[in-house]
Write a structure and sequence with these properties.
mainly alpha; 18 helices; globular
Length: 472
């Protein structure tokens, strides 16, 4: 069917509307508390929607169907672990974030251990977040590349520049409210796609079951004891729990949302509700992947599939009715730009609050720090574009994005858990514990076939164990 003029009108109009909305709602910012934390007055339900929109951007929209297209539904075991991890963050870590006045989560580590631990943890965040979100930017560029036939390096630049402009003016208030709107459109687009795919398959759901069930594509539990498999019950439940425990408990992009909520109870409600929404969302996208498998079994692709992540975008462009393709592609772009906007905002926040205000300019006006924050946003936007251009040959986008965070963030979670203990751990040994945890996980990644779902647990346990050994 192809991407029609109507689709382009819908796409361009929607993206312009998002940019204008983000700029208008972000007006009136006077200081970095407004720019990074929206004045700490965001409602908890909006924060919950924002968490989901940020966590499940383009990687979910094109990555989850690709996983089920080539495999089955066992990724849901990881999502079950995600929910348990949220419970741990809510009741173990969040209370400590509201005992002090914080702009970044790593400032808490300065109070507990010292500047070196704060700086090292912040650097790990900056590195892992920029790498992972560079992959997310490329994932969105893949979609635009399929739609327009532009080379993916051009689509990376187009989306990146648009996101930088949106983030520069929007601030956290615009990010969160855009997330609320984007999530509604995003899920609505996926539901529309579900029914369009189903309608396109002769025989409907019965035919999907006939083609997919004999190949175990509806399997969602796998009790295999094999550390090299990422999507088993044990790797999913245990590994997924620690992945979320770290990413939602020690990643500035997520903790920044809790701080913007302004109170402990609201943050806990927001995080727990987001877990339920994420599970349902992944279920929807994985089932779409199984349905795409059934569709292309009956109507094989007329071209070689260069990357499995392209399968859902190809269907959207070639099979969706005119207008609907534009709406769904717009939803993908808007969600991705919202995620990247949030990432840029948190990267800028960490750069300014953990480094710039500590080592470069310690005393300046609010307007100076606001200008510096926006300048940091521009710099990080350029860095993300560059990383995205390098990510073209890194593999399936969803798994790559998750693997990057799993390598680096386990040691950060380990040091946060050590900080909750009453034992005395000096700054030097604490740094040794963190470096040991990171090096062990990196060695496992490079030298073994242990699945990424175990990395966070290994990094956390190693850091925690070494730290306890050095406690006085």
């Amino acid at each position: 069917m192809g991407f029609t003029t109507l689709d382009y009108v819908v796409l361009v109009g929607y993206l312009l509307g998002c940019a204008i909305f983000g700029t208008l709602i972000g007006r009136g910012q006077r200081n970095i508390n407004d720019y990074f934390l929206a004045g700490k007055h965001m409602p908890w339900w909006a924060i919950s929607f924002s968490i989901v929109a940020t966590e499940t951007s383009t990687l979910t929209f094109i990555g989850a169907p690709a996983i089920a297209y080539t495999g089955n539904l066992t990724f849901l075991q990881v999502i079950a672990g995600y929910f348990l991890g949220r419970l741990l963050v809510s009741f173990v870590l969040i209370p400590s974030y509201f005992k002090k006045s914080l702009h970044t989560v790593y400032q808490l580590l300065d109070l507990q251990f010292g500047k070196k631990i704060q700086n090292y943890s912040a650097l790990l965040f900056l590195g892992s977040r920029s790498l992972a979100d560079g992959v997310r930017l490329f994932a969105t560029a893949l979609v635009l590349s399929v739609v327009t036939d532009l080379a993916d390096h051009w689509t990376v630049i187009i989306i990146g520049v648009a996101t930088i402009a949106y983030t520069y003016y929007g601030g956290m208030r615009a990010v969160v409210w855009n997330d609320v709107a984007q999530l509604i459109i995003y899920v609505g687009g996926a539901v529309i796609a579900f029914f369009v795919v189903l309608e396109a398959i002769p025989g409907g759901w019965a035919e999907v079951v006939t083609l997919a069930a004999p190949l175990d594509k509806f399997q969602f539990l796998d009790f295999t004891l094999n550390l090299s498999l990422a999507y088993t019950f044990w790797a999913g439940l245990i590994g997924g729990t620690f992945v979320t425990f770290a990413t939602h408990g020690t990643d500035q992009m997520m903790v920044q949302r809790y701080l913007a909520c302004g109170d402990r109870r609201g943050s806990q409600l927001a995080l727990i509700l987001s877990g339920l929404m994420v599970f349902l969302q992944f279920l929807l996208f994985l089932v779409i992947g199984v349905m795409l498998f059934a569709f292309y079994e009956r109507f094989p692709l007329g071209q070689e599939l260069e990357q499995v992540d392209r399968i859902f975008p190809i269907f959207i462009v070639e099979q969706m009715p005119a207008g609907f393709s534009g709406l769904i592609i717009a939803a993908i772009f808007a969600a991705a730009m919202s995620t990247l906007s949030s990432s840029l905002n948190s990267l800028s926040s960490c750069s300014i609050n953990d480094f710039y205000r500590v080592y470069l300019v310690q005393e300046a006006s609010d307007s100076h720090y606001l200008r510096a924050s926006r300048a940091a946003t521009l710099i990080w936007g350029v860095i993300l574009i560059f990383i995205s251009l390098l990510a073209r040959n890194w593999g399936e986008v969803l798994q790559v994005g998750l693997t990057i965070s799993s390598i680096t963030m386990g040691s950060v979670l380990g040091i946060f858990l050590l900080g909750l203990r009453k034992g005395k751990l000096r700054e030097g040994p604490a740094l040794v514990a963190m470096v040991t945890g990171l090096m062990i996980v990196l060695a496992i990644h490079l030298l073994s076939d242990v699945a990424w779902t175990w990395y966070m647990l290994i990094g956390t346990a190693t850091t925690f164990g070494v730290g306890i050994f050095y406690e006085e």
